[in-house]
Design a protein that fits this description.
This protein has 394 residues and is of the alpha/beta class. It is 26% helix and 22% strand.
């Protein structure tokens, strides 16, 4: 069973968030609605499908294992190894847990080996060599023009060796320059030239895993999948950086004159960022927006539930970052496709539960059944217990 064939039948159990020490306090969202009231608000039913055999994550090795050349190396956010491991298991790739944030698998082959990459993978590439020095890494790379990225897994222990990765990259670039091999300044230039993006992952002190993929086919153009966004004084929140990274990953951004709807928008972090890009923004939330956001000239605030709102003109981009049950958010996004309200969607799906994959894959099927196409799902660098979804309407 491939990634595109996976479905789930698990229901979501979600506990209410209460104020500490006050069991009678109401949650910040409208989760207190009873099932009949929610049914009146929601049009769709979450999709159901057969569940594949589950996989249990093995114990983490005490010392990071060295993978075999010819296999693939994957990295993920620390503590999300179980999710990535099971995705690869469901894809019949016999995953091997190497250590924190690192998993190896059987190779992916074909002209387009990753039509739907694992949602919890930050980076993945075929392993060509295991090296012990920067000189060995430089020698293992192809003579073609490429962009070299050297990085460590995103764990506390590995991050302490970030200086080693920087030193390796500088040495590799120097050696390749001495041999008249060209390195691109940015990954985007490698994409435009149809060139390679070379990866050197330092899985341990003095141990590098080398491989490369076409820059246009890579999961992420950032080293190790860490797409760090700049924090600005105008939009200091992580929510704004999440949106910036999501649009960068999507590759399409709203511009001047585009109409964007921001569901569950308060206090207005995403609305502000969309306005800064020149778009008109309809901000939907019963709560108040920040005064400076409300004062923006191209922002219109609708103080009502996202589940009740319906636009009276075509919407170019639908955005959603609601702290709400994931299956209900998926149903809401599906309604916007079925009713042809919006052409494109960029959304953040919260996954606070321990067993995330069944819910996530049910979310995915719900969106596909509703008619969203070109669907992509990934846990981006600025995502925590959540994933980012992008899609277009068929």
């Amino acid at each position: 069973m491939g990634f595109d064939e996976i479905g789930v039948v698990f229901d979501l159990c979600y506990s209410r968030r209460m104020k500490k020490g006050d069991r009678k306090a109401k949650p910040r969202t409208e989760w207190h609605l009873n099932p009949e009231q929610r049914q009146q608000q929601h049009v769709l039913t979450a999709a159901r499908a057969e569940v594949p055999k589950r996989a249990k994550l093995p114990a983490t090795p005490t010392v990071t294992l060295v993978p075999e050349p010819g296999s693939w190396l994957w990295t993920c956010r620390a503590t999300f190894e179980a999710q990535l491991y099971e995705e690869l298991y469901w894809g019949k790739k016999n995953p091997i847990l190497l250590g924190p944030a690192l998993i190896a698998s059987e190779p992916f082959t074909g002209e387009n080996p990753l039509p739907q990459p694992p949602a919890f993978a930050r980076m993945g590439f075929p392993i060509s060599a295991i090296v012990r020095t920067p000189a060995e890494a430089a020698a293992a790379l192809p003579p073609d023009s490429l962009k070299v990225q050297v990085w460590v897994p995103d764990t506390d222990a590995a991050n302490a060796r970030a200086g080693e990765a920087a030193a390796w990259e500088e040495t590799i670039r120097s050696i390749r320059s001495d041999e008249a091999r060209n390195d691109f300044d940015t990954p985007w230039k490698a994409v435009e030239a149809g060139a390679w993006l070379a990866q050197v992952c330092l899985i341990g002190p003095g141990v590098g895993v080398v491989g490369w993929v076409r820059a246009r086919d890579t999961i992420s153009l950032s080293a190790g999948g860490r797409s760090r966004m700049k924090r600005t004084s105008e939009a200091p929140s992580r929510a704004a950086m999440k949106l910036d990274e999501a649009l960068d990953w999507y590759g399409v951004s709203p511009g001047k004159g585009d109409l964007c709807v921001d569901l569950g928008s308060a206090p207005g972090g995403w609305t502000r960022r969309l306005h800064e890009r020149g778009a008109r923004v309809w901000s939907i939330d019963p709560a108040n927006l920040a005064p400076d956001v409300l004062a923006l000239k191209r922002v219109k605030h609708f103080k009502q539930s996202a589940f009740e709102f319906a636009p009276d003109e075509p919407v170019d981009f639908l955005f959603c970052d609601m702290a709400w049950r994931p299956l209900e958010v998926a149903q809401l996004l599906g309604k916007w496709s079925r009713k042809r309200y919006a052409s494109q969607v960029v959304a953040n799906i919260k996954l606070p539960m321990k067993d995330k994959l069944p819910t996530l894959l049910r979310v995915r099927q719900t969106l596909l059944d509703a008619g969203w196409t070109n669907l992509r799902i990934r846990q981006l660098y600025h995502d925590r217990d959540e994933v980012t979804v992008t899609a277009r309407r068929s």
